[in-house]
Amino acid sequence: MIGVKADTVIRYIREGRLLVSEISKIEMECDSCGKPSSDGTICRNCRDEMRRELTKAMTNSSSGTSKPSTYRT
Prior knowledge:
By secondary structure, the chain is mainly alpha-helical. Helix content is 38%, strand content 5%.
């Protein structure tokens, strides 16, 4: 043991402050789809899908006369 509570480690993983090694047995659930994720709160597939949807939304909004929205992640 390293003297850190498991809850603290899990919180750090969820916050993106720690990355899970591929050889680790720790798995989190994706908040979006519920599948196992070692990337924090959202799995890679869901994150990629969100990026595609945001890009599409920004492209659609920029085709009008208004200024495209700014998204912060």
